[in-house]
Amino acid sequence: xxxxxxxxxxxxxxxxxxxxxxxxxxxxxxxxxxxxxxxxxxxxxxxxxxxxxxxxxxxxxxxxxxxxxxxxxxxxxxxxxxxxxxxxxxxxxxxxxxxxxxxxxxxxxxxxxxxxxxxxxxxxxxxxxxxxxxxxxxxxxxxxxxxxxxxxxxxxxxxxxxxxxxxxxxxxxxxxxxxxxxxxxxxxxxxxxxxxxxxxxxxxxxxxxxxxxxxxxxxxxxxxxxxxxxxxxxxxxxxxxxxxxxxxxxxxxxxxxxxxxxxxxxxxxxxxxxxxxxxxxxxxxxxxxxxxxxxxxxxxxxxxxxxxxxxxxxxxxxxxxxxxxxxxxxxxxxxxxxxxxxxxxxxxxxxxx
Length: 353
Prior knowledge:
The protein is of the alpha/beta class. It has helices at 2-6, 18-27, 60-77, 89-98, 112-115, 122-134, 143-152, 192-204, 221-230, 245-254, 269-276, 287-290, 318-332, 335-351; strands at 8-13, 32-38, 50-52, 81-85, 104-108, 137-140, 160-162, 177-182, 211-215, 237-241, 255-260, 280-284, 300-302. The chain has two domains: 2-165 and 334-351, Glycogen Phosphorylase B (Rossmann fold); 177-332, Rossmann fold, CATH 3.40.50.
């Protein structure tokens, strides 16, 4: 109905964190009344009411209270749309709690929930498939991940919108320096140690004027610092820790190269940010990478993570790459584009009633 599409009530269910904040920013410009269900205190301020529940499945005694808590919010708020994020236990609880109600339920996949969680065991796979079978519509940040979702439930025709959270316009315009910037979490998944090892080979090849800047933190931070000492490159590697957005943007603006070689990933927002800020991305050979990068043209796709994969960057025309990557993001992945896709999906479902 057109009137409802212009003003509607939205229940957002998601883990607390930056992705929730980003989604709210994309949807708040619509004429929506929002209620949030999450599991932990928010890392940002919000004007919207928030209900906290426990999304874990480890304790069987937790299942019934969580389902009832979600139903209670639904019955009191009576949303026109429920938009849940992450097809793990968050979506499972939400879909199971609200399946009996006639409400549009959208599920947004984040990456590991679809790409790796189903491989951890039969029960995990069944949990993901349950949400895919019963939610109304879905969003995915890459065509590859959407394909994987369809493969999990081949008998159902899924309504999937390809949509990422988008990125903001570059804040700084700074002279590019001989810096390789790596800002993914220090976890085994992201293989930051391989970046450090390749950087060592790059320095040894004669490119000793370059610096590697490692941002973020994680379980492997101390191990990574020890590795730089072991390789005797500590003078060329800076660990800058967890950065606020402003400092993160400054490093994007200064770095010629951005590096990220995880073993599994969908479309990383950090890749889009790096491209918009004119960096030359060096990325893992993953399907989602190929949706944004043409190897040797606007970035480097690393097929062998143990190789000296930085050596070819000395021949890159960084000015040309910066213009091309900025153009790609302006056409495909700005805040405005993301906002329109999410809001158009909501309106389409409401107008279908």
